[in-house]
Amino acid sequence: MKAIVLKDFGGPEQLQLETVPTPQPDAHEVLVRIEAAGVCHHDLMHRAGKLPGAHTGVVLGHEVSGEVVEVGAQVHHLKVGSRVVVYQRRFCGQCRDCLRGRQDLCRALGLPSVDTEGAYAEYLRVPAASAVQLPDSIGYADAALACCPIATSVRALVSQAQLKPGETVLINGASGGLGAHQLQLARSLGARVIAVTGSADKVDFLRTLGAHDVVVAGSEGYSAAVWQLTGRQGVDVAMENIGHTLHDTLRSMAMGGRVVVLGNVQPGTV
Protein backbone atom coordinates (compact mmCIF):
# COMPACT_ATOMS: atom_id res chain seq x y z
CA MET A 1 0.00 0.00 0.00
CA LYS A 2 0.99 3.66 -0.26
CA ALA A 3 1.84 5.54 2.93
CA ILE A 4 3.37 8.89 3.87
CA VAL A 5 6.45 8.20 6.00
CA LEU A 6 8.26 10.72 8.20
CA LYS A 7 11.87 10.36 7.05
CA ASP A 8 13.45 12.94 9.36
CA PHE A 9 12.40 15.75 11.67
CA GLY A 10 11.74 19.05 9.91
CA GLY A 11 9.34 20.60 7.42
CA PRO A 12 6.68 19.05 5.17
CA GLU A 13 9.38 17.89 2.76
CA GLN A 14 10.29 15.20 5.31
CA LEU A 15 6.96 13.47 4.62
CA GLN A 16 7.57 11.15 1.69
CA LEU A 17 5.22 8.83 -0.16
CA GLU A 18 6.44 5.24 -0.07
CA THR A 19 5.21 1.73 -0.75
CA VAL A 20 5.00 -0.28 2.47
CA PRO A 21 3.49 -3.67 3.35
CA THR A 22 -0.27 -3.68 3.85
CA PRO A 23 -0.89 -4.65 7.50
CA GLN A 24 -2.74 -7.89 8.21
CA PRO A 25 -5.27 -7.89 11.06
CA ASP A 26 -5.17 -10.59 13.72
CA ALA A 27 -8.22 -12.29 15.24
CA HIS A 28 -9.27 -9.24 17.28
CA GLU A 29 -8.46 -6.54 14.75
CA VAL A 30 -9.94 -5.00 11.62
CA LEU A 31 -8.36 -3.47 8.55
CA VAL A 32 -9.77 -0.06 7.64
CA ARG A 33 -9.49 1.62 4.26
CA ILE A 34 -8.83 5.26 5.05
CA GLU A 35 -11.43 7.72 3.78
CA ALA A 36 -10.44 10.76 5.87
CA ALA A 37 -7.40 11.59 8.02
CA GLY A 38 -6.99 14.89 9.86
CA VAL A 39 -3.81 16.87 10.42
CA CYS A 40 -3.56 17.58 14.14
CA HIS A 41 -1.14 20.00 15.83
CA HIS A 42 0.17 16.87 17.55
CA ASP A 43 1.30 15.67 14.09
CA LEU A 44 3.03 18.98 13.37
CA MET A 45 4.93 18.81 16.67
CA HIS A 46 5.93 15.21 15.97
CA ARG A 47 7.14 16.11 12.49
CA ALA A 48 9.22 18.96 13.93
CA GLY A 49 10.76 16.66 16.55
CA LYS A 50 9.24 18.64 19.43
CA LEU A 51 6.99 15.91 20.78
CA PRO A 52 8.36 13.88 23.72
CA GLY A 53 8.97 10.33 22.53
CA ALA A 54 8.76 11.24 18.86
CA HIS A 55 10.85 9.32 16.37
CA THR A 56 11.21 9.11 12.62
CA GLY A 57 10.35 6.32 10.20
CA VAL A 58 6.69 6.36 11.26
CA VAL A 59 3.37 7.04 9.56
CA LEU A 60 1.59 9.93 11.28
CA GLY A 61 -2.13 10.54 11.68
CA HIS A 62 -4.59 9.67 14.46
CA GLU A 63 -7.76 11.50 13.36
CA VAL A 64 -9.21 8.86 11.08
CA SER A 65 -12.35 7.35 9.63
CA GLY A 66 -12.94 4.82 6.89
CA GLU A 67 -14.49 1.56 5.76
CA VAL A 68 -13.75 -1.89 7.15
CA VAL A 69 -12.32 -4.12 4.42
CA GLU A 70 -11.12 -7.08 6.50
CA VAL A 71 -12.35 -8.51 9.82
CA GLY A 72 -10.52 -10.74 12.29
CA ALA A 73 -11.97 -14.15 13.16
CA GLN A 74 -13.01 -13.07 16.68
CA VAL A 75 -14.66 -9.79 15.64
CA HIS A 76 -18.45 -9.97 15.67
CA HIS A 77 -19.75 -6.40 15.97
CA LEU A 78 -18.28 -5.21 12.67
CA LYS A 79 -18.33 -6.55 9.14
CA VAL A 80 -16.75 -5.80 5.80
CA GLY A 81 -18.32 -2.56 4.58
CA SER A 82 -18.91 -1.08 8.04
CA ARG A 83 -18.29 2.67 8.17
CA VAL A 84 -16.19 3.46 11.23
CA VAL A 85 -14.38 6.17 13.11
CA VAL A 86 -11.24 5.05 14.93
CA TYR A 87 -10.80 5.93 18.61
CA GLN A 88 -7.52 7.82 18.87
CA ARG A 89 -6.16 5.69 21.72
CA ARG A 90 -5.49 1.97 21.75
CA PHE A 91 -6.39 0.61 25.15
CA CYS A 92 -5.83 -2.71 26.92
CA GLY A 93 -8.97 -2.74 29.11
CA GLN A 94 -6.97 -4.15 32.03
CA CYS A 95 -4.71 -1.42 33.42
CA ARG A 96 -5.52 1.01 36.23
CA ASP A 97 -6.56 3.76 33.84
CA CYS A 98 -8.82 1.52 31.76
CA LEU A 99 -10.51 0.09 34.85
CA ARG A 100 -11.35 3.59 36.10
CA GLY A 101 -12.87 4.57 32.78
CA ARG A 102 -9.91 6.56 31.47
CA GLN A 103 -9.04 4.53 28.40
CA ASP A 104 -7.72 7.76 26.91
CA LEU A 105 -4.79 7.58 29.35
CA CYS A 106 -3.86 3.96 28.62
CA ARG A 107 -0.32 3.51 27.33
CA ALA A 108 -0.17 -0.27 27.33
CA LEU A 109 -0.53 -0.57 23.55
CA GLY A 110 1.28 2.62 22.62
CA LEU A 111 0.23 5.88 21.02
CA PRO A 112 -1.16 5.89 17.46
CA SER A 113 1.38 7.21 14.94
CA VAL A 114 4.04 7.32 17.67
CA ASP A 115 4.33 3.66 18.66
CA THR A 116 1.93 2.15 16.11
CA GLU A 117 0.87 2.64 12.51
CA GLY A 118 -0.77 5.96 11.65
CA ALA A 119 -3.47 7.03 9.24
CA TYR A 120 -1.53 8.81 6.49
CA ALA A 121 -1.86 5.68 4.42
CA GLU A 122 -4.31 3.70 2.33
CA TYR A 123 -5.08 1.24 5.13
CA LEU A 124 -4.88 1.12 8.91
CA ARG A 125 -4.98 -1.93 11.18
CA VAL A 126 -6.71 -1.28 14.51
CA PRO A 127 -8.13 -3.28 17.43
CA ALA A 128 -11.80 -3.90 16.75
CA ALA A 129 -12.63 -2.30 20.10
CA SER A 130 -11.20 0.98 18.78
CA ALA A 131 -13.42 1.05 15.68
CA VAL A 132 -16.80 2.68 16.30
CA GLN A 133 -19.54 2.22 13.72
CA LEU A 134 -20.82 5.44 12.16
CA PRO A 135 -24.43 6.37 11.48
CA ASP A 136 -25.18 7.19 7.85
CA SER A 137 -25.86 10.81 8.82
CA ILE A 138 -22.20 11.51 9.66
CA GLY A 139 -19.71 11.89 6.82
CA TYR A 140 -16.15 10.63 6.92
CA ALA A 141 -14.50 14.07 7.17
CA ASP A 142 -16.66 15.13 10.12
CA ALA A 143 -16.16 11.76 11.80
CA ALA A 144 -12.38 11.98 11.57
CA LEU A 145 -12.49 14.99 13.91
CA ALA A 146 -14.91 13.41 16.36
CA CYS A 147 -12.43 11.48 18.50
CA CYS A 148 -9.72 14.12 18.77
CA PRO A 149 -10.67 17.82 18.98
CA ILE A 150 -14.41 17.32 19.45
CA ALA A 151 -14.35 14.47 21.98
CA THR A 152 -11.44 16.07 23.84
CA SER A 153 -13.39 19.31 24.10
CA VAL A 154 -16.52 17.53 25.34
CA ARG A 155 -14.55 15.75 28.06
CA ALA A 156 -12.78 18.95 29.08
CA LEU A 157 -15.83 21.21 29.28
CA VAL A 158 -18.52 18.75 30.37
CA SER A 159 -16.79 15.98 32.34
CA GLN A 160 -13.80 17.81 33.81
CA ALA A 161 -14.82 21.47 34.13
CA GLN A 162 -18.55 20.73 34.51
CA LEU A 163 -19.34 24.00 32.76
CA LYS A 164 -22.79 25.34 33.64
CA PRO A 165 -25.14 27.75 31.83
CA GLY A 166 -24.41 31.34 32.77
CA GLU A 167 -20.78 30.74 33.72
CA THR A 168 -17.91 32.53 32.00
CA VAL A 169 -15.24 30.45 30.28
CA LEU A 170 -11.82 31.56 29.05
CA ILE A 171 -10.43 29.74 26.01
CA ASN A 172 -6.88 30.49 24.91
CA GLY A 173 -5.51 29.29 21.61
CA ALA A 174 -9.12 29.79 20.58
CA SER A 175 -8.56 29.70 16.83
CA GLY A 176 -6.81 26.32 16.92
CA GLY A 177 -8.43 22.93 16.47
CA LEU A 178 -9.25 22.44 20.14
CA GLY A 179 -10.13 26.05 20.87
CA ALA A 180 -12.51 26.47 17.94
CA HIS A 181 -14.52 23.41 18.98
CA GLN A 182 -14.48 24.39 22.65
CA LEU A 183 -15.81 27.82 21.76
CA GLN A 184 -18.79 26.45 19.87
CA LEU A 185 -19.50 23.80 22.51
CA ALA A 186 -19.33 26.32 25.35
CA ARG A 187 -21.81 28.57 23.55
CA SER A 188 -24.17 25.63 23.08
CA LEU A 189 -23.94 24.95 26.83
CA GLY A 190 -25.09 28.48 27.60
CA ALA A 191 -21.79 29.94 28.79
CA ARG A 192 -20.27 33.35 28.17
CA VAL A 193 -17.10 32.84 26.13
CA ILE A 194 -13.95 34.96 26.29
CA ALA A 195 -11.66 33.85 23.48
CA VAL A 196 -7.93 34.61 23.48
CA THR A 197 -5.85 34.76 20.32
CA GLY A 198 -2.41 36.02 19.44
CA SER A 199 -3.52 37.51 16.14
CA ALA A 200 -5.83 40.45 15.45
CA ASP A 201 -6.58 38.87 12.08
CA LYS A 202 -8.55 36.12 13.84
CA VAL A 203 -10.92 38.32 15.84
CA ASP A 204 -13.73 38.31 13.27
CA PHE A 205 -13.41 34.55 12.80
CA LEU A 206 -13.74 33.93 16.54
CA ARG A 207 -16.77 36.19 16.77
CA THR A 208 -18.32 34.25 13.89
CA LEU A 209 -17.84 31.05 15.91
CA GLY A 210 -19.73 32.63 18.80
CA ALA A 211 -17.23 34.34 21.10
CA HIS A 212 -18.84 37.04 23.24
CA ASP A 213 -15.48 38.77 23.75
CA VAL A 214 -12.12 38.36 22.04
CA VAL A 215 -8.80 39.31 23.63
CA VAL A 216 -5.73 39.73 21.44
CA ALA A 217 -2.87 38.71 23.71
CA GLY A 218 0.28 40.81 23.49
CA SER A 219 3.60 40.63 25.27
CA GLU A 220 1.92 41.51 28.57
CA GLY A 221 -0.51 38.60 28.38
CA TYR A 222 -4.26 38.67 28.71
CA SER A 223 -5.20 38.44 32.39
CA ALA A 224 -5.57 42.22 32.82
CA ALA A 225 -8.02 42.35 29.91
CA VAL A 226 -9.95 39.39 31.31
CA TRP A 227 -10.25 41.06 34.70
CA GLN A 228 -11.61 44.19 33.02
CA LEU A 229 -14.13 42.21 30.94
CA THR A 230 -15.40 40.37 34.03
CA GLY A 231 -15.66 43.39 36.32
CA ARG A 232 -12.64 42.14 38.26
CA GLN A 233 -14.43 38.90 39.08
CA GLY A 234 -12.40 36.55 36.89
CA VAL A 235 -13.67 33.58 34.90
CA ASP A 236 -15.35 30.48 36.28
CA VAL A 237 -13.69 28.04 33.88
CA ALA A 238 -10.57 28.15 31.70
CA MET A 239 -9.38 25.90 28.89
CA GLU A 240 -5.58 26.04 28.87
CA ASN A 241 -4.73 24.89 25.34
CA ILE A 242 -1.21 26.30 25.10
CA GLY A 243 0.69 25.41 28.27
CA HIS A 244 3.30 28.12 28.77
CA THR A 245 0.47 30.63 29.34
CA LEU A 246 -0.77 28.76 32.41
CA HIS A 247 0.33 31.46 34.87
CA ASP A 248 -1.62 34.11 32.96
CA THR A 249 -4.64 31.81 32.91
CA LEU A 250 -4.41 31.32 36.68
CA ARG A 251 -4.34 35.10 37.14
CA SER A 252 -7.59 35.27 35.14
CA MET A 253 -9.56 32.95 37.42
CA ALA A 254 -12.40 33.69 39.80
CA MET A 255 -12.25 32.33 43.32
CA GLY A 256 -13.21 28.66 43.13
CA GLY A 257 -12.67 28.57 39.38
CA ARG A 258 -11.70 25.45 37.43
CA VAL A 259 -8.79 25.16 34.99
CA VAL A 260 -8.41 22.27 32.56
CA VAL A 261 -4.94 21.94 31.00
CA LEU A 262 -5.11 20.32 27.58
CA GLY A 263 -2.14 21.53 25.58
CA ASN A 264 1.57 22.08 25.99
CA VAL A 265 2.87 23.39 22.69
CA GLN A 266 6.29 24.11 24.17
CA PRO A 267 7.15 20.89 26.04
CA GLY A 268 9.11 21.53 29.20
CA THR A 269 7.40 24.82 30.05
CA VAL A 270 4.76 23.20 32.25
Automatic annotation (TrEMBL):
Give the superkingdom in one word.
Answer: Bacteria
SMART domains on file? PKS_ER
Cite the GO molecular-function annotations of the record.
Answer: oxidoreductase activity, acting on the CH-OH group of donors, NAD or NADP as acceptor; RNA binding; zinc ion binding
User: What do the Gene Ontology cellular component annotations say?
Assistant: cytoplasm
In this protein, which residues make up the domain named Enoyl reductase (ER)?
10-261
Name the SUPFAM superfamilies for this protein.
Answer: GroES-like (SSF50129), NAD(P)-binding Rossmann-fold domains (SSF51735)
Cofactor dependence is on: Zn(2+)
- Keyword terms of this UniProt record: Acetylation, Cytoplasm, Metal-binding, NADP, Oxidoreductase, RNA-binding, Zinc
- InterPro entries linked: ADH-like_C, ADH-like_N, ADH_Zn_CS, ER, GroES-like_sf, NAD(P)-bd_dom_sf, Quin_OxRdtase/zeta-crystal_CS, Zinc-ADH_QOR/CCCR
Which compartments is it annotated to reside in?
Cytoplasm
A Pfam family that this protein carries is: ADH_N
* UniProt keyword Zinc present: yes
Family listed: Belongs to the zinc-containing alcohol dehydrogenase family.
Subunit organization: Homotetramer.
Protein name per Swiss-Prot or TrEMBL: Alcohol dehydrogenase catalytic domain-containing protein
This protein's species is Pseudomonas helleri
Instruction: Give the organism's phylogenetic lineage.
Output: Bacteria, Pseudomonadati, Pseudomonadota, Gammaproteobacteria, Pseudomonadales
